Amino acid sequence: MPRKSETVLPSLIERRQKDLLDAWLHSQRNSGAWTTEDESDTKTHSTRFLTELRKGAATGQFEDLQGREWAGVRDLLEEVSRARALRGFTPSQTATFVFSLKEPLFTALRDEVGKDAQKLSDEIWVATLLLDKLGLYTTEVFQKSREEVISRQQAEMLELSTPVVQLWEGILAIPLIGTLDSERTQVVMENLLQEIVKTGAEIAIIDITGVPTVDTLVAQHLLKTVSAARLMGADCIISGIRPQIAQTIVHLGVDLQVTSKANLADAFELALRRAGKAVVERAKSARAQAE
Amino acid sequence: MEQIPILKIGDCLLVSIQVDMHDRLALALQDDLTAKIVESRARGVMIDISALEVVDSFIGRMLNNIAAMSRVLDAVTVVVGMQPAVAITLVELGLALTGVKTALNVDKGLALIRRLIDGEEDGLDRREG
Amino acid sequence: MIVEKDETMPVRNAEDIVRVRREVRTHAVGAGFSLVDQTKIVTAASEIARNTVDYGGGGTLHLSTVRLGARRGVRLIFSDQGPGIADLKLALTDGYTTGSGLGLGLSGAKRLSSEFDVKSTPGEGTVVTIVRWK
Predict the structure, then answer these.
(1) CA distance C39 to chain B (A)
(2) A76 is in which domain, residue-wise?
(3) Claim to verify: residue A107 and residue A184 sit in the same structural domain
């Protein structure tokens, strides 16, 4: 193993940058790691990578890739990784960015020091260790980015899936979709109650058509929401109770203590009645005039 | 000593709690209200708690007491303006406001008192559609 | 657990209970609690503070903003040298009260907190510790 200061990598990259870049881009294209859309991005990234790689290698410190010396390389790889994660690349495709540099680099090394078998073997060893570590680092960053995306999407879904709509003056509806867990129920409760205050609605319809299962916990959560609304001076109606859910509720011995209807339409009709309103069919002649 | 003002609107008494009450003040309010109900022959009592950020079991007890005493004096009690955070906390706390009707705001509270007094509904169960 | 902010105050009378609510609110706001979470911890504090005054003969509150890793929270330690609680299990039941209250103090406060602990020795006193995490 050459002493760190003796590796030819930095000078090699500096002198052969253009050839290396071309060969590397060719290699990347062949491995199917990109599409034509990404061409200019990849070219920019690759160029910058070689520059940063040269700088890192020039410091002679190859042991700790978390160190200062390799910050430039790490930052670039993070950039590449994040961009590709967002674009829907696989982790392998992203890591190939680094690994596909091996072949061109080894070829260049062979040209440079091929006559000295020992030196060539040492240099290849340094290069391969380095690129392996960097390739793995790329995968790690990729994972983290994906987790961040998922986490953000979850938060957005949470937001979107608890909209409160006003069906009529004084009548709100909140259609719930998906599983009701503790955190979601808090959000649901708070949204609904804020809207009740804001609109002065005295009736809120909680529609659970889109809630797949209702166990004791979910039933309790619903009850808490209904109780809180009642404490404030509004009444709730639960709609969308499917036959299976009705059975489960009876079986669990839960007393919902709130009016429930099979579907939103029935609940709305009930709400209108309670609000003292009725839907009236217009007389035929008046209808003809209106149309 | 500070006192919570009690307003008379027709045959209703209106109390608006604006401060974080300490216990003595709450007890004084209870006494004052009872006296005023008798004195004014009020039929309705409205307590506006829209400015209250905390309602603990002591205040809950106070509200229940006021409702109980009013009922004895043939008056109804309506609590209005409970903040969402307070409602959520009370449910978690397990506090039940017995004998207390609630409404979203002063307007709806007065309307509710009207309905209750005029006997259009028995006021016990508004759940019938 | 790291203690970021710290203070001790007397809990001996009705005015102290009001002050407890105010100070706990300040800590909760400082720890970045949502309005609902603020209300819950302040209400819990009010319940225990009242117990301390009414049944504990008065005592003290040690109030702190704490941090565990990335989570921040508010911790309240109420202590008194009062008669203590003879039957803890009973005291933690909803509706149980030896006084004229609704009996929700301890059990209610427990429901409003993330962590809850009561240590009581009859004749020596009581320590109630509650923590609410953001």
Answers:
(1) 6
(2) 4-152
(3) no
Return the pLDDT at B128: 36
Cβ-based neighbours of A116, under 8 Å, separated by 6 or more: none
Out of A230-244, B44-58, B100-114, least confident range = A230-244
Asked if the Cβ–Cβ distance from B88 to A194 is below 8 Å, we say: no
Assess whether A108 and A208 both reside in one domain. no
Looking at the domain assignment, is residue A22 inside a domain?
yes
Q: What is the CA radius of gyration of chain C?
A: 14
Paired residues of A98 in beta bridges:
none
| Of C40, A228, A195, the residue nearest B82 (C-alpha) | A228
Q: Are B123 and B114 in contact (CB under 8 A)?
A: no
The residue among C39, C47, C92, C100 with the most chain B CBs within 10 A of its CB, best to mutate, is C39
Distance CA A71, CA A60 (A): 14
Q: A256 and chain B: CB distance < 8 Å anywhere?
A: no
Structure tokens at A83: 């961009």
Number of domains chain A is built from: 2
Tokens linked to C21: 């609510």
- Is residue B12 scored above 60 in pLDDT? yes
**What is the signed CA dihedral for B111, B114, B120, B124, rounded to 10 degrees?**
80
Determine the residue type at C71.
R
Q: Would you state the structure tokens that stand for residue A208, as one six-digit string?
A: 């659970």
B6-117 CATH fold: Transcription Regulator spoIIAA (3.30.750)
Cβ atoms A170, A275 nearer than 8 A: yes
The Cα A264–Cα A237 span in angstroms is 9
Look at chain B and count its residues. Answer: 129
In angstroms, rounded to a whole number, what is the distance separating the alpha carbons of residues B6 and B52?
A: 17
The CATH class given to the C2-133 domain equals alpha beta
Query: What ipTM does this complex have?
Result: 0.87
C59 touches C84 (CB < 8 A): no
Integer angstrom CA distances of residue C43 from A183, B54, C77, C110: 21, 6, 15, 11
Nearest beta carbon to residue B57 from set C35, C42, C47: C47
Q: Are residues A115 and A223 in the same domain?
A: no
**DSSP H helices in chain B:** 23-40, 57-72, 84-93, 106-117
Write down the domain spans for chain B.
6-117
Residue that the structure tokens 């608006």 belong to: B16
